[in-house]
Every structure is written in structure tokens, then in C-alpha cells.
Amino acid sequence: MSLVRCVEVARTFGQGDRAVVAVHGCSCDVEAGARIAIRGASGSGKSTLLHLMAGLEVPTSGSVSWPEFGESPADRARQIAVVFQGPSLLPALDVLENTMMAAVLTGTDEAEATERALAALKTVGVTGLVNQLPETLSGGQAQRIAVARALTLRPRLLLADEPTGQLDELTGRHVMDVLLAAADELGAALVVSTHDPTVGDRMTEHWEMHDGRLLVPARGGVG
């Protein structure tokens, strides 16, 4: 059962002499329950590919489809959650409000969104921070809350872009523990981009990106 299918997908930023091809003709499938690490150096195109899978970027050529999620962007938004690489919390909102935000924006009523957010914050171990603003948080705390926000969607596909890239080893290990446990509990597919071999080793499939080109083992084909 394919959740995301990319067929000869390419993404170019800019035009003319300034054009940069971030992704070159990638083809791949993410199946239900998958545990995939996309490994590669910084600038290899990993983030852009994840954004294409999430529907946050539109391909310059090729196609991205979501066979199990329907055609509506709103339906996809309720089933795909993204943990971004850099800071992504809104500075004017406290931790609870930031954690609720994704669920509220995709149509969950406020009471249920609050319940989901509190449960997710407990899962990632930061329930004591619910009233704090992002400026008071450490990098590790902020990343845990970003993970909690994604979990409030109860997604079928969880995409994490370098989720441990700015964390110390211990905190990074905990964030991966949370992501893997949450994916197991939700029955969700998990795709993680990383250049950290210790993160990649915890996943069952290993894809490689080099200069925007994706190398996928035989099960998913080669793009």
C-alpha cells in the first residue's frame, strides 16, 4: 500500500543562469508502515524531497501522488505531519498553543486539540513547559515540542527533516525514541532525512541522496 509515490520528480529553484536543481528525476514509493532513512550530505536535496512528499513544494516536473490520502490537500494535511529541521515554533504562542496548532488548523475542535496536545507533550516528556514561550526553551526542548505538534495530527505518514541535527547525542537519541515509538503506536510510516549514521541505523530502509539524485534499494526502484 503506497502512501506517497514520486515519479521522475524534479525541483528547480530560480531561473536561467541562477537556476539550481535541488532534486533530479527521483522515483520512489513510501509504503504503509515503512521506516526509511534518507541519508546524504547537507545540500544533497533531502529536505526538498521531503517537502515534495508532504505537498509543501510543487515539482517542476514529474509527479507526486498520495494514493491512500485522496485528492484534497485538506485530507492530506490531516494525514501527513512534518517535523522541520530548523526552529518552527511561533514565538507569540506558548508551548501548549504551539502544540495544538497543527490539529486546530486541520479542523480538530479546540477541546480535542488540547487533549491531543497534552498527551503528545507527555509522550515527549515536556509537560512542565506548557505555559512557556519558545524564547525560554533549549534547542532540545523546542525540537521535542515540534515532534509533539506533529503527533497531535495522529498522522499516517510522519516526515522528519534532520530531527536530531541540532541536538546533543543524548537528546537526539531521545527524540528518535519518541519518533519511532509514536510511529509504532499510530501505525504510521516514518521517513527521516539525516546525515547521522546512528539515526540511519535505527531505520529498516536506507536511501541515499547525492547532488539531488536519489538511490533507492530494489524494493522501491531507482530514481
Question: What structural keywords apply?
Answer:
alpha/beta; ATP-binding cassette domain-containing protein; ABC_transporter-like_CS; Rossmann fold; nucleotide-binding; 34% helix; AAA+_ATPase; globular; 223 residues; three-stranded antiparallel beta sheet
Explain this structure to me?
The structure is a single chain. The chain has 223 residues and is an alpha/beta fold. The protein has a single domain, classed as Rossmann fold (3-Layer(aba) Sandwich), CATH 3.40.50.300. It is 34% helix and 26% strand. The protein contains seven helices and nine strands, in the order E-E-E-H-E-H-E-H-H-H-E-H-E-H-E-E. It has helices at 46-54, 73-77, 95-105, 110-124, 139-151, 169-186, 197-200, and strands spanning 2-13, 20-31, 35-39, 61-65, 80-83, 157-161, 189-194, 205-210, 213-215. The strands form two sheets. Strands 5-6-7-3-8-9 form a six-stranded mixed β-sheet, with helices on both faces. Helix 3 crosses helix 4 and helix 5 runs parallel beside helix 6. The radius of gyration is 17 Å and the shape is globular. The two termini are 19 Å apart. The model has no long low-confidence stretch (mean pLDDT 90). One of its GO terms (molecular function) is ATP binding. Keywords: ATP-binding, Nucleotide-binding.
